[in-house]
Backbone:
């Protein structure tokens, strides 16, 4: 057999078999025990529910996706710029950073209704909630990165009379990149959660309700199979989003940073 | 003549209470090549950092190029080869070498040309595009030396620059350093080494330091004209100087 193929098979095979067995057992147990569908639907019911409402489901996914991306981009831009601002002055950092920490500890679900009152039901509130959840880890990670440059390199820049801005741009930001990427990975997952939570409280976003909205709607009507389908799509969305951010980070850092180097010797 | 570097009763106590240097006195004239030898932890790097204005003495006075170390630094008068290579891992070898010029905002073309030239001096012209992690420890150190040379300093501080190199490369770079120094009569070199042979071969003066807190306990003038070459390295005089250095280190 082709070695590449057999390698792939040995990697993917076991989890694939486990998955098939799990789904099969689920289908069999529910069918044999004759559990009512509203309590625990069979996998086949879930697939059917998804297929019947395919256009709806896709619409919800794309709405949530757009909200997530918007919230994520805002939190990345806001977090990185905010951290650069804080890091460029010790006084500013010392006076503002404690509040950023406090902000981080506020349970966002608790303030979400206030945001809806301020921004109105709909996409603006949802994106704001996603942004708020993703912003804090971006800010604190970037700030830690900006403040953890190698002492010798710092000395070197001082020695050659670098301006504050040169040190920031040529030394502190590149040195912070691994931390920034760490922040991206945390905040991209959080933004998906933020968007869905936002839809719970702020309802319809954009033209059509997102996954969070579809979930609350299906739950009220006890459409359990569709509820499962929505939950599944939300998971897939979260995983896919995380993988994309992960891939981008490997591309950016791959050439020089250890955390993304997998024992390559070129 | 105005000394290039003067230390007057300079002491350094670190905030954690470590007394690294105690009442060091020193005068360095223009164009000297001086080696510091002394046991590990006796404050050689500390003296260098203070001379470059990267760390302030707790007592005493330092004068560099007739002014404060900070002022001398601001006039682009000082280069420093740190004990570690201290390269930016995200930048190519060429960009690392060009850094001092980049920070002075020299034109890109000048940066590239000068970097190529400096890399040629240390024998790394084929590695301009490589990243630091693709080089060996010794090669990284040579990049760091090239970066110090590109700044065209009046004082070159070299903190154990050849410690990580094999004997052949070490000798090549010693020759290289001597020829660069001789071509720039105004350039003063201060050099840290643990190697008595290296100190004797390179310098016109050797300063021996006591264990911590470091003071300069002895001064050995190596009054042998340059270029010295292998005849000096293998001659009887050489052994006598090395013996003198080793003996001073023991006291
Ligand atoms: N930032 C610091 N804070 C506290 N103590 C320090 C600091 N830097 C150096 N020291 C101490 O000061 C003493 C002198 O250090 P220094 O680095 O100058 O020694 P050195 O002569 O260069 O040694 P080596 O030959 O091993 O490089 C050492 O005992 C060291 O532990
Ligand atoms: Mg040292």
Residues:
């Amino acid at each position: 057999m082709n070695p590449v193929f057999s390698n792939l098979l040995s990697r993917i095979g076991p989890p694939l078999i486990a998955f098939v067995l799990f789904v099969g057992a689920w289908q069999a147990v529910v069918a044999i025990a004759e559990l009512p569908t509203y309590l625990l639907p069979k996998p086949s019911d879930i697939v059917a529910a998804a297929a019947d409402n395919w256009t709806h489901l896709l619409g919800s996914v794309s709405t949530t996706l757009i909200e997530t991306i918007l919230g994520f981009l805002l939190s990345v831009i806001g977090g990185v710029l905010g951290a650069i601002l804080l890091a460029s002055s010790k006084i500013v950092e010392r006076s503002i950073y404690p509040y950023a920490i406090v902000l981080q500890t506020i349970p966002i679900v608790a303030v979400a209704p206030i945001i809806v009152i301020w921004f109105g039901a709909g996409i603006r509130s949802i994106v704001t909630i996603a942004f708020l959840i993703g912003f804090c880890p971006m800010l604190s990670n970037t700030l830690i990165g900006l403040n953890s440059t190698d002492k010798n390199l710092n000395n070197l820049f001082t020695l050659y009379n670098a301006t504050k801005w040169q040190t920031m741009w040529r030394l502190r930001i590149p040195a912070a990149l691994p931390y920034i990427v760490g922040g991206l990975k945390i905040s991209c997952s959080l933004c998906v959660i933020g968007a869905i939570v936002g839809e719970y409280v702020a309802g319809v976003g954009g033209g059509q309700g997102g996954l969070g909205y579809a979930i609350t709607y299906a739950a009220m009507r006890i459409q359990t199979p569709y509820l499962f389908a929505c939950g599944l799509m939300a998971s897939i969305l979260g995983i896919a989003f995380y993988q994309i951010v992960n891939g981008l980070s490997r591309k950016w850092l791959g050439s020089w940073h250890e955390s993304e180097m997998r024992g390559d010797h070129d | 003549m105005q000394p290039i570097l003067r230390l007057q009763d300079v002491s350094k106590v670190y905030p954690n209470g470590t007394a690294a240097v105690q009442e060091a006195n020193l005068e360095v004239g223009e164009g000297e090549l001086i080696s510091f030898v002394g046991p590990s932890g006796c404050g050689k790097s500390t003296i260098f950092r203070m001379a470059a204005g990267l760390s302030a003495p707790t007592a005493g006075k330092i004068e560099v190029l007739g002014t404060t170390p900070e002022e001398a630094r601001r006039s682009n008068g000082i280069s420093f080869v740190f004990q570690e290579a201290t390269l930016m891992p995200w930048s190519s070898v060429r960009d690392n070498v060009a850094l001092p010029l980049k920070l002075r905002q020299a034109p890109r073309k000048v940066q590239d040309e000068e970097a190529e030239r400096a890399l040629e001096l240390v024998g790394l012209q084929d590695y301009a595009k490589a990243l630091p992690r693709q080089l060996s420890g010794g090669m990284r150190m040579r990049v760091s030396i090239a970066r110090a040379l590109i700044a065209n300093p009046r004082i070159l501080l070299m903190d154990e620059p050849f410690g990580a190199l094999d004997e052949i490369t070490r000798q090549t770079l010693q020759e290289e350093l001597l020829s660069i120094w001789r071509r720039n009569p105004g350039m003063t070199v201060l050099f840290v080494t643990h190697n008595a042979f290296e100190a004797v071969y390179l310098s016109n003066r050797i300063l021996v330091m006591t264990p911590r807190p470091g003071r300069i306990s002895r001064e050995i003038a190596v009054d042998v004209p340059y270029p010295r070459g292998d005849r000096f390295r293998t001659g009887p005089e050489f052994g006598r100087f090395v013996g003198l250095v080793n003996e001073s280190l023991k006291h």
